[in-house]
Amino acid sequence: MLRERPDAPPELLAQLADGAYFGEVGLLQDRPRTATVRAGAGGAEVLAMARDAFLRYVAQFDLVGDEIAALIRRRAISRGLAQSLPTLTPAQIAQVAPEVAPRIYAPGEPIIRQGERAETFYILTRGRAEVLRQYPGGQSATIDWREPGEYF
Hints:
Elements: E1 2-5, E2 8-12, H1 24-29, H2 51-60, H3 62-84, H4 90-96, E3 129-134, E4 140-146
Antiparallel strand pairs: 1-2, 3-4
Helix pairs in contact: 2-3
């Protein structure tokens, strides 16, 4: 699976194996394809399903919808890892991705708190995060900001 842009060389997003499925994001969100999928050196055989049938079965069978939602989450995680830690190879990303879970925070909601035991590593994939320091006497001040692709 490749991301192709006119101003950059193709970026390998994933190598698909037997039983993998693809193309669901564009169908579910009714938008253009987000990547190119090419047959490998030995060729490829695929099963293809028309959009109307696909959407009908997703609506009819919850299991299919759950599987697709899980796949989309895994791909989002892999994409976030690749963008934030660009030195990781696709194989390393595939190894790390199952250990990562997406978390969403509301504006102003603490992600970590000063003084808590450090038990989790975070990679910011969307939005901004404010870094605050608490001082004796209860005052706090913004000391930095984290942007997508940064980690803490």
